[in-house]
Amino acid sequence: MSANEDQEMELEALRSIYEGDESFRELSPVSFQYRIGENGDPKAFLIEISWTETYPQTPPILSMNAFFNNTISSAVKQSILAKLQEAVEANLGTAMTYTLFEYAKDNKEQFMENHNPVNSATSISNSISIETPNTAPSSKKKDKKEQLSKAQKRKLADKTDHKGELPRGWNWVDVVKLSKTGSKDDE
């Protein structure tokens, strides 16, 4: 059989095996993802397998670069890929996508034994919230002086002396008015 016939047969088998399985995802007829572990499990990870033109005679391309794997350290990812690569070499020449997914499921605990979740989402949001007040455009608007109309400027000039200061006691009238009204309410 040719490589294309092998691929077609394996594709058909994968579709029938993983039909209804939420962990399996067919990205294209030659590229597949499988989530090892349950949603919300801190030790869950995603494996992506892409077939080459001459697969299964040549090894498929294995990847763990999915966003889902951001909490996994690169050392753990490399360790998982190295163990999967050993399984690829043992199964070279045969349909191995199902075998690799099942191998990963069976050895999940061993693969993730050195895994300490890296909380990259929290550190990113913290750095954003720290930088936000410094770069906020609204703070520049607050520093901007209020624009006055000519009438407002004239009124302000009439109230102030030649230095631009208000005369002593300019607001006392309001205080006196308030104290008189306050005393009437008390009686």
TrEMBL record:
PROSITE patterns listed in its UniProt record: RWD
Chain ranges of the RWD domain: 9-111
One Pfam family hit: RWD
Region (Disordered): 117-167
Bias (Basic and acidic residues): 155-166
Top-level division of the source organism's lineage: Eukaryota
Ranges of biased composition (kind: Low complexity): 119-135
Protein's recorded name: RWD domain-containing protein
